[in-house]
Amino acid sequence: MKSEIQVFREYIRGRRLRRTPEREQILQEIFEIHGHFDVDELHLRLRDKASKVSKASIYRALPLFIDCGLVREVDFSDGHWHYEHVYGHAHHSHLRCLGCGEVLEFEQPGLGCLEAHLAQEFGYRIKGHQLQVHGFCATCQEAE
Amino acid sequence: MKSEIQVFREYIRGRRLRRTPEREQILQEIFEIHGHFDVDELHLRLRDKASKVSKASIYRALPLFIDCGLVREVDFSDGHWHYEHVYGHAHHSHLRCLGCGEVLEFEQPGLGCLEAHLAQEFGYRIKGHQLQVHGFCATCQEAE
DNA sequence: GATGTAATTGAGAATCAATTACAATAATAC
DNA sequence: GTATTATTGTAATTGATTCTCAATTACATC
């Protein structure tokens, strides 16, 4: 399997874009994040490492990472985007607690089959899906 | 089955909130919308009927409707919230075209079973889920 | 290695949906 | 009817994201 930096560099070359230290710093940082992140968090983490990458550059780089399949947008319905490092990870869905915000991951293999079915029924070429389940975790149920 | 206005009035009474013409106008308008809507659209439709309800009131009313199960937030990943009239409708998921923005609905009965499974495995009390599938419709595939 | 080009950058301004403060109004309880 | 307090519209504010613009820099070519 190609390394993620490799995937990104090939993508960059293929599009006549440019390989910059900023983009690679951002990507590197994403690899090191365990779990989900948002732009603010990513920016702070880079700040802490004395990187001067601006938020604007992060906002500009993320669509590239998404486009080449390294990162995925995740919707937690809290008013801004979250992202996750996706390359080489099994596709999964999120179970989110409406009380404390905890997010668990689970696998849902049946959805590949659903995609094939939808492709056939509606004539779509399917690119992906997002499934979120929400509710209250054990702790938050007690607290109610 | 209780009428939707009834559901809402009981909810209002139960919470010691107040029944106002603005809220009922908004709710009434939502019933008459076929399909999905966003705050802007709802506001324009009310304007057209010479209603003076402000956007702020719409923003303030929607969480109430959601809370009493009459309306559901829908995420089309286009930067702002969409909603749909939900009471008495079968739960469904959305298939969205990344090219033209078309949205189709489909039913996915297996997910009720998934919810029960998750409830058991993680100790959650599940409140609901959202599934969106995205890809390119037949027309947009040709255009590429 | 120098040069031209066009992509990329950071900083800050602009945008836009959503929220909030405030004073006026109006729904409910008494 | 009166008091209480939720709700309203208006306008200001917030906060995430996008855009602008001048300066910089990566890459291809000489």
Major sheet summary line of chain A: 3 strands, antiparallel
- Specify which chain pair forms the largest interface: A-B, 33 and 33 residues
Helical content class of chain A: 40-55%
Which ranges of chain A are low-confidence, i.e. pLDDT below 50, for 5 or more consecutive residues?
none
Based on secondary structure, the structural category of chain A is alpha+beta
Q: What is the name of the CATH superfamily of the largest domain in chain A?
A: Winged helix-like DNA-binding domain superfamily/Winged helix DNA-binding domain
The rounded Rg of chain A comes to 18 Å
The whole-number mean of residue pLDDT values of chain A reads 92
The CATH C-level name of the largest domain in chain A is: Mainly Alpha
Secondary structure elements and pairings:
The structure is a homodimer.
Chain A: H1 4-14, H2 21-32, E1 36-37, H3 39-48, H4 55-67, E2 71-74, E3 82-85, E4 93-97, E5 103-106, H5 110-122, E6 125-136, H6 138-143
Parallel strand pairs in A: 4-6
Antiparallel strand pairs in A: 1-3, 2-3, 4-5
Helix pairs in contact in A: 2-4
Chain B binds a DNA duplex (30 and 30 nucleotides) through helix 4.
